[in-house]
Amino acid sequence: MKGMKLAAAALAASLLAGTSVLAQEYTLRFNHVLGPSEPFHEGFLKWAERVAERTNGNLQIEVFHSAQLGVEEDIIEQIRQGANIGQNTDAARLGNYVPGIAVVNGPYFVSTIEEAYALADSPTMQGWQTELAEQHGLKVVCFDWVQGFRHFFTNKPIRTPEDLAGLRIRTPPAPIWQESIRALGAEPTAMNFTDIYPGLQQRAVDGAELVYPNITAANLNEVLDYANETAHILLVNFQVVSSQWFDNLPQDYQTALVEECRAAGQETSEVIRQATEEAKATLVEQGMTVIEDVDMDAFRAAGEKAYEVLGILDAKNKVHAEIGK
């Protein structure tokens, strides 16, 4: 009888322990530099909601806009150390760790959202992601978040690369970004997104290269007059977390995190298409001049130099071959 009681107690303890493991809660603090009115912010909130639903609330994503958790580069270093933090970033910054992946941020690398999505099937891209995770502690959850075409926004009209000569254009602090803007004719100036408005006011920079919704969200039209439609980068965003943190999640939580990231990203990319047109119309109403007669052939030809300078032209061509571009 005593043995039966002990066995029952052991079984109960085992079941309780199992329940405790299943009910373990995880939290991801997710940081991005964009404002709360940007479509991406709403998309990240949807991602968080759906992941919570699929995990019965046991995996929570807390979304922080406007770089509330800190500067992007600092956050990425915290992620590498295993912190339960995520960051919306780009291939330019990831290229600081795996140089080849920076091609995704190069001039005219992809021309459509469909080409951007096709990158997920590229063996070369998959290899770079594995290297990021295994050697640098950065797990790419997905990169289906396409923020639209970046253009030069300035206080003078730009139609050719020569028109950018001598202009200091704000860029993020990453080699591919710096070399891309230099190749296209301007002088790149590293600056955080939140510093662009005062930087323009104080004439630390003469312009920026951004997407249309960035301009309306940050009221940059108050300090910029021209939208020059160079469409030099179709910006593909990467959502990254600590590979150590990710690997410690239950398998079904990992699956939920990735699948819902991709779904929310593709939905948000479609929202961005519409938001871009709306933002452009708003800026025109508010007095911004749009320059559409840009010499695209000249800009495309100039952009090739960025790949050559960084030694990643072969990597670009390899990925293009894999996606049929």
Q: What do we call the CATH topology?
A: D-Maltodextrin-Binding Protein, domain 2
Assembly state of the chains shown? single chain
Q: Please give the CATH class.
A: Alpha Beta
Shape: globular
Q: Tell me how many strands there are.
A: 9
Uncertain segments: 1-21
- Helical segment count: 13
Number of domains: 1
Radius of gyration: 22 Å
Distance between the termini: 75 Å
Helix content: 40-55%
User: Structural class from helices and strands?
Assistant: alpha/beta
Mean pLDDT: 92
Largest sheet: 9 strands, mixed
Question: What is the H/E string?
Answer: HEHEHEHHHEEHEHEHEHHEHH
CATH architecture: 3-Layer(aba) Sandwich
CATH superfamily: Bacterial extracellular solute-binding protein, family 7
β-strand amount = 15-25%
Keywords: Signal
Protein name: C4-dicarboxylate TRAP transporter substrate-binding protein
InterPro entries: DctP_fam, TRAP_DctP, TRAP_DctP_sf
Signal peptide: 1-23
Outline the structure in words:
The chain has 325 residues and is of the alpha/beta class. The chain has helices spanning 2-22, 39-54, 72-80, 91-94, 113-118, 123-136, 175-183, 196-201, 212-217, 243-247, 251-285, 296-310, 313-323; strands at 26-31, 59-64, 85-90, 138-154, 168-171, 187-190, 207-210, 226-242, 289-291. Strands 1, 2, 3, 4, 5, 6, 7, 8 and 9 form a 9-stranded mixed β-sheet that branches. Helix 2 (39-54) runs antiparallel to helix 11 (251-285). Keywords: Signal. Residues 1-23 form the signal peptide. InterPro entries: DctP_fam, TRAP_DctP, TRAP_DctP_sf. This is C4-dicarboxylate TRAP transporter substrate-binding protein.
